[in-house]
Structure prediction request, 154 residues.
Amino acid sequence: MASYVVERSAVVRAPAERVHALVADFRQWPAWSPWEDVDPDLHRAYDGPETGPGSSYAWSGNRKAGSGRMAVTSDTPERVDFDLHFEKPIKSDSAFAFVLRPTDAGTEVTWRMTGEQRGLMAVLGKVVSMDRLVGKDFEKGLARLRAVAEQAAP
Prediction:
């Protein structure tokens, strides 16, 4: 079993409150998520409060999208933490967070995912790192998040 960390950062020229609203509410994710174009017929289900701990999002889609569930575990103005559980294509569990740090240029957003590679993921991890598997998705997501947040910024 091996642990992994995947992390990417970007500066968004928008206030932290605007960025926070986009990442803390799963209903906002279709506007910026890097996985939105993987399955145009993706089925989504939301549960719990709109934001904050207990807010959750489940999805089910084609072979590329797979299925799983995310839930907010902690939410402050500076950080939103999530648990992520994939059922398909490969069962796995991870934790991830968006860390927001105000800067003179706007908000530095860091998207960080951590976990343990078990079972098939541990075997796959010997060939391809988690950073290589999802790092480009994080970069794409941060670029889309930047575009949406900056467009809506006053």
Observations:
- The chain has a mean pLDDT of 89.
- The longest helix spans residues 130-152.
- The chain has one domain: 2-152.
- The radius of gyration is 15 Å.
